[in-house]
Amino acid sequence: MSNGLEAETAGISLYTPAWYDVAWGAVTLLLPLGALAVLYLVVRLAARHGSASASDGAPQPGYRRAGHPNAEAARRHGALVAGTAWVLAAVVPQVVLTVAAPFLVIAAPAYAPSGSVPASGAVLVGLAPALPGLTYLAVHAVGERTWPRAHGSVRRASLAPRSVRGVTPRWLRRITAAWAIALAATLATCAAVAQDGVRLVATVGVSVRTTSPFPGAFYGVPLAISIAVVLVGTGLVLRQVARRPAALPDDPAYDDASRLLSGHRVLRGTQLVVGWSLAGVLAVAGVALRAVELDVLGTAVLVVATLVGLASLAVALVPGRARVPTSVRLPHPGASVIGASPSLPQESA
């Protein structure tokens, strides 16, 4: 060793220049700060978009102070369903995995291409997004089936057909689709470069380096199936939102806004599941790339993983706001409802 800075082991230099440590220290310090800044900007932009959408409607005062009984019942029901969905989506997967984990090791078939990788690992990867996602959707499905029906002497029903697109915000559909497409592309890329579906092999100089785990087909296939099931379940729940009975049949503007708020609540959970799945895949891939000394590429992938995870979380925290054309009002001039006319439903920030 020379000057205490360089060690020689079997002719291989282990010396690391000082600027290298300083540079990585700066990256370690600035990355969380940059991620927080991006999170703040995403929340502000999404909230501004929501405010602009809400201004396109025709809110009426008195919803929370003296709302129509049917509207109040729908508001309380929707808030209860949304809160319960978040709580159970966080709790149920932990309970299920705690109980089922010992049985997965025994029941999982010899699926792994190598004895060093247990088949239960792929099962757990597939369950990671499926359990919280399907729990979240199941709560919303029950909530839609038990949605409060209109009460009164006169009831009307709109004959206008509704679609899934009509009960979900366009920007939220695009974000969810973007996460899903990016996840599919990432899994396909990792499957193409993975060795035996579980490890990454790279040639660096004259040496060949191998690392595992890597999100190849062994992990990617169960994850892709899991995400596909969550997306299909989302579509089914959104169909329930579109077809549920109206709380205020005499006020189509309020009914449309109420459905749009419910669709927002359903879809924001789905985009969080897909976004965090993408972030997890990128994070595992980034760590593997750094393990085979592809530091620059691995660090870039880790940065993207952090930003995707924070962005999807920020989108999930954006309160739902309804966008209803001002021209859509009561079906005829003489139509009326009992009690104060409610404002268009929206979540408080």
Automatic annotation (TrEMBL):
Keywords of the record, alphabetical order, are:
Membrane, Transmembrane, Transmembrane helix
Residue ranges crossing the lipid bilayer per the database entry: 22-43, 85-111, 117-139, 175-194, 214-238, 272-291, 297-319
Protein name per Swiss-Prot or TrEMBL:
Uncharacterized protein
